[in-house]
Amino acid sequence: MRPLTLPLAVCACLAAGCGDPKGPGPGTAPDRAELVYEGHMAGIPEAFRIDTGGSGAPERILPAGTVAMDPTPSPDGRHLAFVVANDAEGTGDIFVVDRDGTGRRQLTTAPELDDSPAWSPDGSRIAFRSYRGGHDGEIWVMNADGTGAVNLTPTTGTAIIDNRRPGWSPDGRAIVFASTLGGEWGIWTMGADGGGKRQLTNTPALDAEPAWSPDGREIAFRRSDASGSDILVMPAVGGEPVRLALPGEQRLPAWSSDGRLIAFVGQPTVHDQPELYVMRADGREVRLVTVQPSWGGGLHPAWRRRD
């Protein structure tokens, strides 16, 4: 990975933001948006919300101490899917609550781990990763009420294949995901029914955590190699990606609803607390959003319209 120390100017650029000062900056959230994310206050993974300008303190979405990993808002913002997992035992399930944190419902009950929920654009279905098939991670889709679960990437025989982080195309016809189907970790797409699987990246690097742009034209993802971990953007049909080379380590990109901005998790070094940042989609004007380290940083950012 990258060296454990960085030049002061480089660290300052990541923390304070740098780039062309002209034009609309990431401090102005599109469509009055906020970020929903997983924070680790007192070491407990909880669901928080925060204004993308970083001007206010985070707010808990659920009662203090409620375990809620990978919180993911529904497209209309009325519901929130999240995961309650036990990493030591490798178990976990997907839950849903209403926007105000009430009406908690458990959607999955398999004894193995279910995680990484992703709502379809119309809110009727949820894609997720599951180990319930007895293999490494597989991508499943279920109805938004937890019924009708179908395995889209069934593993046959003794093959060791892992799939993770599903995300829907804006038209709901396809799903992007990371997979070792090609031998190395790469970005793949498939139809919403699991057909037509297609590999988009194939390099010795680890490519993962894909996110489809709102206009359907691009896919952002994380690439990790000997130089570190960066966010890249490529055409949704495949092709040469553009690396948004920023100082430190970056992962888990999330597009704003208008496609202007990308939220992500950043760390000056792999040993630092992960924090949430927002940048323009071309990598300029980086801004730190989680400005209070005592709140436990942030993981798994997702955009949601404010109340």
Walk me through the structure:
- The protein is an all-beta fold.
- The chain has one helix at 8-16, and strands spanning 33-41, 44-51, 59-60, 69-73, 79-86, 91-98, 105-106, 114-119, 125-130, 138-143, 150-151, 163-168, 174-179, 186-191, 198-199, 206-212, 218-225, 228-235, 242-244, 249-255, 261-267, 275-280, 287-288, 299-305.
- The strands form six sheets. The protein has a four-stranded antiparallel β-sheet with strand order 3-2-1-24, with no helix packed on it. A four-stranded antiparallel β-sheet has the order 4-5-6-7, with no helix packed on it.
- Strand 1 and strand 2 form a beta hairpin.
- The longest helix has 9 residues, at 8-16.
- The radius of gyration is 18 Å and the shape is globular.
Separation of the first and last Cα atoms: 41 Å
Percent range of helical residues: under 10%
Strand content: 35-45%
Strand tally: 24
Q: Based on CA inertia axes, which overall geometry fits?
A: globular
Oligomer state equals single chain
| Largest sheet properties | 4 strands, antiparallel
Q: pLDDT below 50 for ≥5 consecutive residues: which ranges?
A: 1-28
Q: Output the radius of gyration.
A: 18 Å
SS element count, helices: 1
Helix/strand structural class = mainly beta
Overall pLDDT level: 89
Side-by-side strand order of the widest sheet:
3-2-1-24
The H/E string reads HEEEEEEEEEEEEEEEEEEEEEEEE
